[in-house]
Amino acid sequence: MMKITYKIILIIFISSLNAQGQFSDKENDNKRLKWEQIKKKIEAAVERGEIKPDKAKDHYQYYREREMAASNRKKDIVLENNFKRIGINDLNKLKNQLLDQDIALSQLDAVLGGMLRLIYAAKSDKENFGINPRIETYFKDRLDLTDAQVKYIIVFANKIAIDGRMD
Question: Computed from CA positions of residues 49, 97, 138, 78, in that sequence, does the dihedral angle turn out positive or negative?
């Protein structure tokens, strides 16, 4: 009787995890679709001459900041403090640069954590810096980033480590 109870509990637990995953995927798809619609509207306004191309970036940033605030995500003070220690005081600017590379909003904190590791590794091994295969696997397999996105993150992290700047 006890084995059957455990099996039932296990099945319920697995089903609830699966349902949460499906909800999360659907939510991400909705956010991505909404972002694509906003992007098309802004690009169309640029083509019609209603806004200048350099102002389009401001519109993108405004939308993203509004989305971040709307999602009621807690500020990760630890992550923010770690970036402040290396000279990055505006984490939102860094997040926007990553979002420009089509990195999903839901992946930002994980990507930023991986970037911190890369930055610290690049600072300690200035001339011999090479990405650890485990961190590359983390970005590609766990976060499902493309090769181009991973390359961008590596170059960007190395630049921050060397220059201490994002631009």
Answer: negative
